[in-house]
Design a protein that fits this description.
This protein is an alpha+beta fold. The protein contains 16 helices and 18 strands. 34% of the residues lie in helices and 23% in strands. The protein is globular. The relative contact order is 0.19.
């Protein structure tokens, strides 16, 4: 490596693993975070609200990732997008989906999230989410970092290239609109979730509302109970709705309280993103089984390069069935069990923590079993005490292009935003150290 004995240069040349276990820097500048989150008067008080009600939303440090790991994640996301476009893959994924998911109006799904654990063998895809939260929160968080000591100055240069992530995210919604409406003008966007003010990521709804409003759109946040389907249009408080940014976890709009939105979507009267079609193609966890089966991928026409990436990066996943119950129970310590349409780690279980009661519930439901891949480890210091936290990496992506990487730090079985020192953390990709 280049010979330079300065502390900063030596630290910059360390591996991501060494830095994740040896750097205790607290890089979050709360004043900068305040400026980023409350850039508009309508967002006043947002950070104070987060601090009081969601104290573990943001970590005060970063997670380090190697350039090679970042490139592998980017390549895997692009490979998955190409496989999803194959007719054979789509036919299988849609064959098991409900009728509402067969509608293909054009949008492919805004705010996609690909979650990875990092291993010695490279990034391992844990799951795909079609309504992945946190993108705008992580944009603000990344901009609020600063060097805490001279040795870390290399990581936080005083003059950084200005990013345009807000514009990138807005353009994503514009692309979704045009995919269904062509050159018609987008005038209104409604952010929809059940009891939105009570959602843990409710602060992000406000950030998206302001993003849309800044672009000149009528933007609001609503519970689906406030929507009406009338005369061929979706209405909210007397105004017709053009587009809905869908944050619901009722992915196929089955619940009675979502009827108006379902009727508007089925009629093609509103642009809904992400929609049931996208969930069936990407986020149903049975798709992980197909992505890891080389024979199927070959039959569908996946390229050698894409098959190689997926073979290396998708942990073996299998359907849980009563016929294989004894075998799965015997191997449970090497498996992680997830509901096929689950989200946010709900009803997800490490096999070594299973009780017979929970196992019986799993057998009665629709679950997959995925080979257990250990999450990354990040050693942090809280009040002088060192604590080892776990982390995963979320790649926010659209149309196969990664927009942003962020980490989620936690203790316990799954991500939870309840861990002291945990929460969202920026991902710092290490520079390539040249030889001399």
């Amino acid at each position: 490596m280049t010979i330079d004995q300065s502390p900063a240069a030596l630290l910059a040349s360390c591996s991501a693993e060494v830095l994740n276990q040896g750097s205790f820097c607290r890089s979050l500048n709360l004043e900068r975070l305040h400026q980023q989150l409350e850039s508009d008067p309508s967002l006043k008080g947002l950070l104070q609200g987060i601090t009081q009600t969601r104290p573990h939303l943001f970590s005060s440090t970063v997670v380090f990732v190697s350039r090679q790991m970042e490139q592998q994640i980017t390549q895997m996301v692009a490979a998955i997008e190409r496989v999803v476009a194959l007719p054979g893959y789509r036919a299988q994924a849609l064959a098991r989906a409900p009728a509402i998911a067969q509608n293909a109006f054009g949008p492919i799904g805004a705010c996609m999230g690909f979650d990875f654990h990092l291993s010695a063998a490279g990034p391992q895809l844990i799951e795909v989410n079609t309504n992945a939260g946190g993108a705008l929160l992580n944009v603000a968080l990344a901009r609020a970092q600063q060097s805490c000591c001279e040795a870390m100055d290399w990581a936080f240069p005083p003059e950084r290239k200005a990013d345009t992530m807000e514009q990138t995210l807005f353009d994503m919604f514009q692309t979704e609109w045009r995919a269904q409406r062509g050159t018609a003008r987008l005038q209104s966007v409604l952010i929809v979730d059940d009891d939105p003010a009570a959602q843990y990521l409710a602060p992000e709804f406000e950030l998206f509302r302001q993003l849309f409003a800044r672009a000149g759109l009528a933007a609001a946040i609503a519970d689906p109970s406030a929507l009406r389907w009338h005369e061929g249009k979706l209405w909210h408080k007397g105004s017709a709705v053009d587009m809905v940014y869908n944050r619901l976890t009722d992915f196929y709009l089955d619940e009675p309280r979502h009827l108006a939105l379902r009727q508007a979507y089925e009629a093609g009267a509103v642009v809904l993103t992400p929609d049931p079609h996208a969930h069936a193609l990407y986020a149903d966890k049975r798709n992980l089984i197909a992505l890891g089966q080389d024979g199927l991928l070959t039959a569908w026409g996946a390229s050698d390069a894409d098959r190689s990436l997926l073979q290396a990066g998708v942990p073996q996943t299998e359907l849980v069935t009563p016929e294989h119950a004894d075998d799965l129970w015997a191997r449970r310590r090497q498996l992680f069990f997830k509901p096929v349409a689950g989200f946010g780690a709900k009803a997800a279980y490490r096999g070594d923590k299973l009780t017979r009661r929970v196992w019986a519930e799993i057998l009665e439901g629709d679950f997959v079993a995925q080979a257990l891949v250990a999450p990354g480890q990040r050693l942090i210091e809280i009040d002088g005490v060192q604590t080892d936290l776990k982390f995963d990496i979320r790649a926010y992506a659209y149309a196969g292009q990664v927009q942003l990487l962020a980490a989620r730090m936690y203790a316990g079985q799954t991500t939870n935003f309840r861990t002291e020192g945990g929460g969202f953390a920026p991902v710092l990709v290490l520079p390539v150290v040249t030889a001399s």
